[in-house]
Amino acid sequence: MALHRPRRRSAHDPINPSLFSLLVLSPFVLHRNHFRKDWQSRVKTWFDQPGRKHSRRAARQAKAVKAGLRPVELLRPAVRCPTKRYNTKLRSGRGFTAAELKAAGIRRKEALSIGVPVDHRRRNRSEESLKINKERLEAYKQRLVVFPKKAGKVKRGDTEGADKSVEGLKTLAATFPLPAGHKQEGPRAITSEELANKGTAYTALRKARSDQRYAGIRAERQKKKEEEEAAKKK
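Above: the chain's sequence. Below: its structure in token form.
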């Protein structure tokens, strides 16, 4: 049986364009895959995953017992959403500002220890935001129970006669809900008072702008008119 050797490709033979683009344009080496690497001995198993889950849960419970009674959640401030489209809505923010803590009588260093986070970047740009979060902190302080570190030694800020059997709150969001934001009014009839007061804030601003802009021209026109009337009388 005769065996035919494959003909060598000459320089004039056409080249597969996909192979040409792969060889010329690709900066990587064309690998020959080797799969005889004994991969069975290099597989990492996770048969201990259920046991680790149980261990982590037991560790969390032990840590909670050791820490004692403490806030499970942090009290969040009421802030405005960004951009003009959503700034009529209120949402929970990151932390309270220094001005809000000072107005509520809470020191910054002890705030986080009683479940009140602090945000040093946010600023109060209106009296309304300061008032809302101040009232929120004051309501939280009225419900807060601070146990002394040592039994029988009550310090400033601790609750006298605190009983550790006190019932805790389920969630802070349900106990201290966010105040309602801007409520959009539905269609209604125009009242008689609104009809009597035809001027609006927009028209008042436009009139003030017009008076300021044409004050010089109108003064010159009035002066010229008075001079013409004086000349006619002569």
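The chain has a mean pLDDT of 83.
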